[in-house]
Amino acid sequence: MSSPHVAIGTSALAVSVSAAGNLVPQWRAGNVKWRFAAAFSVAGVLGALAGSVAAQAVDG
Question: Are 45 and 36 in contact (CB under 8 A)?
Answer without folding.
Answer: no
